[in-house]
Design brief:
mainly beta; 4 helices; 8-stranded antiparallel beta barrel; 4-stranded antiparallel beta sheet; disordered N terminus
Length: 296
C-alpha cells in the first residue's frame, strides 16, 4: 500500500511539472496569408466569332477551376483560358480559386448575340439543337420521281394531292439532338400503288387513306413509332429502326425501289438542308425518288 502511494505521488508530481512547463512555452504561429479573392475578365477575341479570353485577376490564389457553362462543370485550368459558343444565348461562366487560406468563387454572364454560321451543323439544323418537328411540304412536287439527272419528271404530287393524300402530309417527324426520332402518323396511313395495283398486294384497296388498324400486321412498322437516326459524313441521313422511312414507304434502300416489307434502316442523301427546309433523295441509278420537308 505504501509503495503504491509513493508511485501515485510521484506521477502526480511529474504531471504537475509538465503542466508548468507547457504553460511557460511560447508558440510561433505561421501566417498563412490572406484569403483568396476570385475575379476575372472576359475579352472577345478579335476576328473570331463568339470566342472569348477568360483571364483570372484573382488575388492570393494558386489553383484555378473554370466552369464555362458548357455542361462539363468545373475543370482545372490556367489563369488564362478561352471559351467558344456556337449558339447565341446567355452563358454564366464561373471561376473557383484555391489559396493557402481558403477558397473563393466568382461568376460573370456572357451574352452571345448571334449564332456562329461556321458552327451550324446538319444535326443542329435538323434538331434545332433540341427537338424539331418536320412534315412533308404542303406543295406540289414534295413527292417527286424522275431520272437521276432531273431532266424530266415521271411523277410528282399535285397541289390537290396535299388534300387527297392528307394522311401522308400530316405525318410528323420529331428529330432530337440525342439521335432519337419519333414518327407520329396521326393514326392514319396512305396505301400507295405500284403500277396498277396497291403495294404490297395484300394492302387494303383501293389506294388511299386508311386508319392504322386497317393496315396488315406485317406492315404496322410503317405506321410510325420510336426510331433513331444519324448523319454519315454530314451528307447522308440514316433512319434506323424497322419501318422508318421518308415520303413513300415503298421506296427502299437502293437498289430496292419497291420493297414488300419494312426495312431495318434506310439511308437518304441530303440534297439540301436549312433551318426550315429539308430535301432528301434515294438514287437508284436508273431513277431517283426525292422528298421535300418543312419544319413546324
Amino acid at each position: 500500500m505504501i509503495s503504491l502511494f509513493i508511485k501515485s505521488k510521484k506521477a502526480l508530481l511529474l504531471f504537475s511539472v509538465l503542466l508548468v512547463a507547457l504553460s511557460s512555452c511560447k508558440y510561433e504561429t505561421r501566417d498563412l496569408g490572406a484569403k483568396p479573392e476570385a475575379s476575372f475578365t472576359i475579352t472577345p477575341v478579335a476576328g473570331q466569332m463568339n470566342k472569348y479570353v477568360l483571364s483570372s485577376t484573382s488575388k492570393n490564389a494558386f489553383r484555378y477551376e473554370w466552369d464555362k457553362a458548357d455542361g462539363k462543370g468545373f475543370i482545372t485550368g490556367k489563369e488564362t483560358d478561352t471559351v467558344y459558343y456556337a449558339d447565341k444565348g446567355n452563358y454564366t461562366v464561373r471561376l473557383f480559386v484555391y489559396g493557402q487560406s481558403g477558397v473563393d468563387t466568382a461568376a460573370q454572364l456572357i451574352q452571345v448575340a448571334e449564332d456562329d454560321p461556321a458552327g451550324i451543323t446538319p444535326l443542329k439544323l435538323l434538331t434545332g439543337n433540341a427537338t424539331k418537328k418536320w412534315k412533308l411540304a404542303p406543295e406540289a412536287g414534295a413527292l417527286w420521281i424522275g431520272p437521276s439527272d432531273y431532266s424530266q419528271t415521271w411523277w410528282s404530287n399535285t397541289a390537290g394531292d396535299v388534300t387527297a393524300r392528307s394522311c401522308a402530309f400530316n405525318d410528323e417527324y420529331s428529330f432530337s439532338k440525342d439521335g432519337s426520332l419519333v414518327v407520329d402518323n396521326k393514326g392514319d396511313f396512305y396505301v400507295d400503288m405500284e403500277g396498277a395495283t396497291v403495294w404490297p398486294a395484300d394492302m387494303p384497296a383501293p389506294a388511299g387513306c386508311y386508319d392504322n388498324s386497317a393496315i396488315p400486321a406485317a406492315y404496322q412498322a410503317w405506321t410510325g413509332g420510336n426510331f433513331t437516326f444519324e448523319f454519315v459524313n454530314n451528307n447522308t441521313l440514316k433512319l434506323k429502326g424497322k419501318g422508318a422511312y421518308f415520303g413513300v414507304y415503298k421506296a427502299g434502300n437502293p437498289p430496292n425501289a419497291a420493297v414488300t416489307a419494312p426495312e431495318n434502316e434506310i439511308s437518304y442523301q441530303v440534297v439540301s438542308l436549312t433551318a426550315n427546309r429539308l430535301v432528301v433523295k434515294l438514287d437508284y441509278g436508273w431513277g431517283t425518288w426525292q422528298f421535300t420537308y418543312v419544319s413546324l
